[in-house]
Structure formats: structure tokens, C-alpha cells
């Protein structure tokens, strides 16, 4: 029997006072998910437990059966793969934010506040060609990557992520990187000069490299599980993970990585992929984005829409039973806007269970049980 993992990013949440103390998942109407739970069960599980960080990268790798020791140090390498590039073992890749600095030299924003998307693109172009051994790749908006020769000291260098460092002195934040690498020191000084023209209203802009990542060979999905796998996704990190595991990746037209994604197109793509692959991952990123915006109502709406516009049409067109797990990867709290270590709802059971005999009720209690159910259970 084929299996489907419906991954609703950041599905775990806090009880929301404005939702009468319910989480967005508890508040949302999701009859198809309830139907799946009735053929198996509903549990609350922490995917990251206490041993990995509550981030999509590590938690999704875990849900795909990758051992902790094979997880990459930082996600830049996987984002590079998502972008259709790879590096050699002699190179490394860093994330590089276009960030804003205030008049007192403190980080005023990690995502280039005050610039339009076109200006961000223009600014990113200035990062290119600074040094011939640094390749600069513009991803989108404030997000860029740097490829350079591998310097072990840089890989070991603890540069604070810009999104966790707003309000802190930029010179101090980047000092370890400047001290460790001559090339990066030159790159930072030169790009500071080149970006001077974008300064306005007491803000100036810098390129902020962080999160260095070396090439990492991941085991293939097929070698891990003895079955084939595909993914329907848009979020860069998930595209990168799926490519790194050698899974077939489908990015449907109209997928956005946010709550306005085309759920019908995703259902179509998942159905098609289920014809060719034993296992399909369908990833939905909008729930995590809504929580980061403290928008619990949009998160609840998105969960209900996944039920109505993804699961319902999918179930309606399946002509055989499919094993399915619907869960999150980590908590994203709509109260704090941050990721957390707590539990995510996990629904496990079948679509088109009417074509099956009796099914067993069980309560998912660990990520290993999810993996066993999806990848190993024989029919
Ligand atoms: Zn997130």
C-alpha cells in the first residue's frame, strides 16, 4: 500500500485565549482528518524530542528517517541544492542576509526593512564580483548565498543568526567572522562601501554572512526504506531535503510556500506522484508563516483549507486505500511567533479506508511509530 505524509509546518501551537483556549488545530474544522483518525488514531508527539533543534530542517529529516548523525550542520547547503546547485567537498556555502543597521551601529532588521524587492535585487547584484573566489547567489528578497573555498575555522565560527540578533551591535556580531577569514573580512568591507547609496532615514544596509555549511552526503530515501519516494513542496528547505535524499520533487505551479498556496494544484500533483512513488510527502508551509506573524486565525483557516481543498479532492479521486499521516514538524507558537520543543498533533490512519477490511485503532506516540507505519508496515 502506498503512503502519504501530509506535513503541516509548525502545526503544534499554544492554546489561544481568543480561540477559547484551543490551539488552531483544535479550533479548525477538518472532517477528512477526523475521518482518517477514526481509522487509526490521533496523538500528540514531539518530533524533535530534546535532542535536535525545533526547526523544519532537522525535524523533517527525522520524519523522513534520517539519523541525527547524518543531519547537516546548517541549512545553507540544502538551500543551495534547492536552487539547483551543488558544491565540491573543497567548498562551503553561507547564508548571506541583506540586513539593515541603524545610526548607532545596531542591527535594525534581518530582512532589509525599508527596501523594495527591486532594490533588494539591485543591492544583491553589488555582492557579486567582489572577490573572484567568492560566488554570490541571490535567492529572493533579502536572502542570498555565498560560495567560497572551505575554511574550517569559518565552519567552526559561531556567527549569530541575524534574525536572533536584532538590536545588537553589528561590529561585535561580525567580528568573529572578520577575524577568522581574510576573504570574508574584505568582502564585508567592500560590500559596505558598495551599499552606501541605499542608506536612507538613518538606516544603512550590509551583507551579513552566517550559517556556514559544508557539502553533506545524505543517505538516499530508497536506501533508507527500501521504497521509492517523492515530494510535493515549494519551501526551499524542503525542496533541498527531498533532492538531497534523491526523491522526485514536484513544485506545482501556483504553490507559494505561504497560506495563499494553490491547494488544488498540490492535490493534483500528489495524486500524480502517488501513481509513480511508494511514498509521497506533501508539505504545507503557510501554517508556520502565519504563526510567525502571530496570525492564529489565518493558521486555523489554512488547516481547514488543507482539509477541504487538498485532502478532500485527493480522497475523492483515490481508487485504492492509502496509508496517511498528517502532522507538524515542530511547534510554532502563534502567541510568541517562535518555534518550540512541544508536541504537534499527529493523525495516522487511512484514506479510502472503506476499501479495506477492519482497521486497528492505535495512538501514535513517537516519531519511530510514524516511520514504521509509513515506510515499513506490510499490507
Ligand atoms: Zn518557522
Q: How does this model look, in words?
A:
The chain has 379 residues and is of the alpha/beta class. The chain folds into two domains: 229 residues, Alkaline Phosphatase, subunit A (3-Layer(aba) Sandwich), CATH 3.40.720.10; 133 residues, no CATH class. 35% of the residues lie in helices and 21% in strands. It has 14 helices and 14 strands. The strands form three sheets. The protein has a seven-stranded mixed sheet with strand order 2-14-11-1-10-8-9, with helices on both faces. It is globular, with a radius of gyration of 22 Å. The model has no long low-confidence stretch (mean pLDDT 95). Zinc ion binds next to helix 12.
Quick recap of the structure?
It contains 14 helices and 14 strands. The chain is α/β, with parallel strands linked by helices and 379 residues long.
- Summed up, the helix count is 14
Shape, principal axes of CA atoms: globular
* CATH fold-type name of the largest domain: Alkaline Phosphatase, subunit A
Kindly provide the radius of gyration, computed on alpha-carbon positions and rounded to a whole number of angstroms. Answer: 22 Å
Which residues form runs of ≥5 with pLDDT under 50? none
Largest sheet: 7 strands, mixed
* Secondary-structure element series: EHHEHHEEHEEHHHEHEHEHEHHEEEEH
CATH architecture of the largest domain: 3-Layer(aba) Sandwich
Fourth-level CATH superfamily of the largest domain: Alkaline Phosphatase, subunit A
Structural class: alpha/beta
CATH class of the largest domain: Alpha Beta
Please state how the strands of the largest beta sheet are arranged side by side.
Answer: 2-14-11-1-10-8-9
Count all strands and give the number: 14
Helix content, binned percent = 25-40%
Kindly state the mean pLDDT as a whole number?
95
Between the first and last Cα atoms, what is the distance in angstroms?
6 Å
Number of domains: 2
- Taken as a percent bin, the fraction of beta residues is 15-25%
